[in-house]
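Task: sequence design from structure.
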């Protein structure tokens, strides 16, 4: 029996979020709350564990909004700021548990964290600086507190990124290509979350058309689109254009 697993979209926007600062387009001015998108991140609850995928600049606001009381680990897809910038706020969990927060990422991403959050890893630390335990991962499956996780290798133009499969659910963001052998790891999914930013070509992200082709190839029972930009239609208009098994995710959606 697969464990019951719950996923909450904490953010579903691209790196600028929606609305974009100083933009007056129809999507940025939309009154629909589903068109208010913080930077992309999901909370996964499985086997009484709580995991976060990515910790962008809206981390604090997102965890407050979802009333997250515990965190057993943060999985990072890659080191772009919209996926790591909120890590300073793990201090809240350091204070509540007295423990460092466990971070799982590739070596290259770890190196970026050590540069970007230099004060966390320095020898004479400022008292009250964040406490993080770094766990280096690669394409091979690993376990966080009893939760089995299978990384999926994708490409963000020339930058390798990791997606993650947990049980019957996969989350892949910021890719414009997934390596052919990785499709083996994506068989028999109930839920696939995949990113897209716009129609037409983008150098480092799936376009909407490419994301739909990817979904058609993987054949999950249901798919969700995330990491959306204001260049796509507003939520309801975009949803109406999609096949029945493809949903536009929105902030706060739980599946
Ligand atoms: Zn991103
Ligand atoms: Zn706009
Ligand atoms: Zn990125």
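Answer:
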């Amino acid at each position: 029996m697969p464990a019951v697993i719950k996923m909450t979209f904490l953010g579903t926007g691209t790196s600028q979020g929606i609305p974009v600062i100083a933009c007056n387009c129809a999507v940025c001015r939309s009154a629909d709350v589903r068109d208010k998108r913080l930077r992309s991140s999901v909370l996964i609850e499985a086997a009484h564990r709580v995991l976060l995928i990515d910790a962008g600049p809206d981390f604090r606001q997102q965890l407050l909004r979802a009333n997250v009381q515990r965190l057993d680990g943060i999985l990072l897809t890659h080191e772009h700021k919209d996926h790591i910038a909120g890590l300073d706020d793990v201090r809240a969990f350091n204070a509540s548990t007295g423990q460092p927060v466990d971070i799982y990422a590739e070596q290259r991403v770890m190196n970026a964290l050590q540069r970007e959050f230099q004060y966390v890893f320095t020898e004479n630390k400022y008292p009250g600086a964040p406490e993080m335990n770094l766990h280096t991962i690669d394409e091979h499956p690993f376990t966080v507190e009893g939760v089995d996780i299978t990384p999926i290798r994708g490409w963000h133009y020339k930058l390798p990124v990791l997606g993650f499969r947990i049980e019957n659910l996969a989350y892949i963001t910021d890719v414009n290509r997934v390596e052919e052998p990785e499709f083996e790891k994506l068989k028999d999914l109930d839920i696939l979350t995949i990113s897209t930013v716009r129609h037409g070509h983008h150098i480092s992200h799936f376009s909407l058309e490419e994301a739909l082709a990817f979904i058609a190839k993987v054949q999950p029972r249901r798919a969700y689109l995330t990491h959306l930009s204001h260049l796509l239609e507003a939520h309801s208009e975009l949803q109406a254009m999609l096949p029945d098994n493809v949903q536009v995710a929105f902030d706060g959606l739980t599946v």
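The first strand starts at residue 5 and ends at 11.
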